[in-house]
Amino acid sequence: MTAPVKMRLLTYNILKGGHERVAKIVKVIQCVDPDVVVVQEVLEVDHFQQIATTLGMSPYLAHSQGRLPLRVGLLSRLPVLDFHTLHLWPVWPSCLQATVQLANGYSLTVFGVHLAAYYPWFLEWWRTHQVCTLIRYLRRAAPGRQLLAGDFNTIAPGD
After folding, report:
1. Using alpha carbons only, what angle is made at residue 17 by residues 81 and 134, rounded to the nearest 5 degrees?
2. Do strands 9-13 and 36-42 pair parallel, antiparallel, or not at all (unpaired)?
3. How many Cβ atoms are within 10 Å of 40's Cβ, its own excluded?
4. How far apart are the first and last CA of the chain?
5. CA 8/CA 137 separation, integer angstroms
6. Pick from 148, 135, 73: which is nearest to 109 by CA?
7. Residue whose C-alpha is closest to residue 62's, from 113, 15, 12, 16
8. Confidence band, pLDDT 50/70/90 cuts, at residue 158
9. 130 phi and psi, to 5 degrees?
10. What is the spatial distance between Cα 69 and Cα 107, in angstroms, rounded to a whole number?
11. What is the average per-residue pLDDT within 140-157?
12. What is the rounded distance in angstroms from the CA atom of residue 119 to the CA atom of residue 154?
């Protein structure tokens, strides 16, 4: 049996690309001091790159699906062995899969998501459908250690 390894992960919705708040976003991330950050609502590649550079982290950005320019990104201090955008309908607008190297020699596959938002009942059903699609994909395509992180946009109290 191998010794456990600690990894600190932050998931952060920077809201509408974090426009004019890059320094504040950097401060929040620095306070948490994560090894990996899953970032939602990336709009401007330049802002995302600036955040990564300031933090000394490697940036990875999933492509947006459809008309919405919102993207999910990954910032990492750990070596990233593999990264790609997942195109899993109905999971939109952006979803990523990244495999990071842990300190103990094992790897961890991180899935970053940003699920549908807003209040109508049918969107709660849609979010459930998105999660079920993700879970089916995780079981089939990515054996081993996995972590699903992001903005799930749950709206019920306590979720």
Report:
1. 50
2. parallel
3. 23
4. 35
5. 25
6. 148
7. 113
8. low
9. -60, -45
10. 30
11. 82
12. 9
- Alpha-carbon distances of 116 from 13, 66, 93, rounded to whole Å: 13, 13, 8
pTM equals: 0.90
DSSP per-residue codes, 49-113: HHHHHHHT-EEEEPPPPTT---EEEEEESSPEEEEEE---TTS-S-EEEEEEE-TTS-EEEEEEE
Q: Is the pLDDT of residue 154 over 90?
A: no
pLDDT in tens, 42-60: 999 999 999 999 999 999 9
> Cα(8)–Cα(6) distance, rounded to whole angstroms?
7
% of residues, the chain, pLDDT over 90: 56
Q: Which pLDDT tens digit goes with each residue over 87-96? A: 887 777 778 9
